[in-house]
Amino acid sequence: MQQEFTLGRGKAMINFTLKYCDTRQKMFNSYGFRRVIESFIIENLKKDEVIIYDYYIKTFKTDEEFINSLLEFFKLVNVCELDEILKVNNIYSVFLDDKSLFIELIELLYKYWRRLERITIVRNSQLGDGLQNVRFIQANDLFNELILSIYRRTEETVMGYSHRVYRQLAAGANAGLTLNDVKWNCPAEYNGLSTVPFISSVVFNPPVITYTKKNTRDGIFQEHKENPLKGINLNDDNWFVFPAWVGNMLTFVYFHKDFIDHGLGLANLFELATESDYIGKKPDMIYLFGYPDAHEEKRTFYHKDKKNDILIGYANYCDDIDYFGYMKKMLLTLHNVKQMENGALPLHGAMVNVALKNGKEANIIIIGDSGAGKSESLEAFRTLNDNFIRHMRIIFDDMGYLKFENDGSIKAYGTEIGAFVRTDDLDPTYAFEQLDRGIYTNPDKVNARVTIPVSTYEVISKGYKVDYMLYANNYAESEQKINFFDNLEKAIEVFEAGARKAKGTTTEKGLVKSYFANPFGPVQERELAEKLIKKYFTAMNENGVKIGEMHTSLAIDGMTKDGPRQAAEELFTLINE
């Protein structure tokens, strides 16, 4: 990022490397401060607050004069008394004739600024009048204090008295990134990606609240025969790389700066790889997210680069991909296709290790597509903690995989360290507990989501034997909530059918089916998946794994909370026997 400040699509990017404002004077003279004032007056005040805008434009005549005068008044009011300001230029009296109106203007500007997604950046190899050798977290804290001091000094000088209540809000940045220029084992076909900086650390000021153009995901990702990265050259001013561990797959996620909120969400969902993991290394997977290819329609697909043994994901720049589901689910599709090629079986579900109060322990996998009740069942387990559970450890909360070990045993592993869950399906107490670490997406809309860390990479990578393999049935009413299959073929038939009643997390409606409840790999590679399912389910059945259905009743009216809870209680009773 070569610019000191950019503003677009509701995102403010502040480059501390090129310009770090540590005084009010530097702030007032910066391009970024002017750009925010300009955007506020033209795009917000002029459109939505016409009474205030009309009051001031009568004096200043043009937007340009209004912007310039407000900037100068900020400079003066932060160093001078009011009578001194009027001696400088009497035109500033318009800001003081109706002080309550000016205070309202300042509050609207402050609200406008805080509604933006504000991200600070330091690029370690970059030279300039910046921050390379200063502690990044401390710099963000000082920047926050500077914004607050400007806001308070301006208001208090105009009011003529000090505030009596101070709210220490995150007025500076929501998040920050440190970037490194890295040399990786880049095949010649991907030289156009080589200048993009890698994210080495992420700083949050939670809760981070983001708003996206879309609120659901649609369709599945199909294989594309042509390599979408062929001939592409990325401008390092507009792109970042998030080096992630998706399961045990090293993945380079390239995303356009306009979709940085989705890039930040990765930090709560996948393990951020260290420099030693990727310097001089070749990734297993590459995902290019938000590439402007001149196509207005959504284009999302994957490609198998067999020559370099790299799986490629692609999503073009358009409003339709502006939803975190397109970031997360493509990465899971790539992971699952790669795992199947390596002989592992990907699972769309949740897994938990529970230790009950009577000393018994069990590893439970719940399989199901979006809205079937996987995460809700884990939430039910959590709420039953006091009655049944001594300890509970989440292994994965959306995607994992089964793998044959060298000794012939089967173990399960997680793919993500976090969860992207509907806030409506969380217990209110637990949802509020996540405020200090969550990334909230469209919190006031249907299908509001929060991305939160739920495990550690060490935990999901350990490998766990399986005791219970359950299919989450969200649509059929059943007095008995847990039913085990006594016929392996019937069990495989139910799991492969992948039936569920759509619950609004995608654009699907009614009773729908998705092969193996997993449209992220097994659907696309069905022939390979069928062989793996038969192989793994046969082995689990022979090893005494209990295979059955868990009736979550999630899609039945009035059972959203009670259904998963009743099923969890019955399951714990069975484990206790």
Q: What's the SSE blueprint?
A:
Layout lengths: L4 E4 L2 E5 L8 H5 L2 H18 L1 H11 L2 H15 L4 H7 L5 H4 L1 H17 L1 E7 L12 H24 L15 E6 L17 E7 L3 E3 L11 E2 L15 E8 L2 E8 L3 H6 L5 E2 L2 H4 L6 E7 L8 E6 L4 E7 L7 H18 L3 E12 L4 E7 L6 H10 L1 H4 E8 L2 E6 L5 E5 L3 E5 L5 H6 L5 E3 L7 E5 L3 H4 L7 E6 L8 E3 L3 H10 L1 E3 L9 E3 L12 H17 L3 E6 L10 H15 L1
Parallel strand pairs: 2-3, 3-4, 6-20, 7-12, 9-11, 11-13, 15-22, 22-26
Antiparallel strand pairs: 1-2, 4-5, 8-9, 8-10, 12-13, 14-15, 14-16, 14-17, 17-18, 19-21, 20-21, 23-26, 24-25
Helix pairs in contact: 2-3, 2-4, 2-7, 3-4, 7-8, 12-18
Outline of the structure:
This protein is 34% helix and 25% strand. The chain is an alpha/beta fold.
The 3D shape can be described as: elongated
Helix/strand class? alpha/beta
State the low-pLDDT regions, or none: 126-133
Q: What separation lies between the terminal Cα atoms? A: 61 Å
What does the largest sheet look like? Answer: 8 strands, mixed
Describe this structure in words.
The protein is of the alpha/beta class and 577 residues long. The chain is built from 18 helices and 26 strands. Helix 8 links the parallel strand 3 (117-123) and strand 4 (175-180). It is elongated and about 90 Å long. Residues 126-133 have low confidence and may be disordered.
Task: List the defining traits of the structure above.
577 residues, Phosphoenolpyruvate Carboxykinase, domain 1, Phosphoenolpyruvate Carboxykinase, domain 3, 8-stranded mixed β-sheet, 7-stranded mixed β-sheet
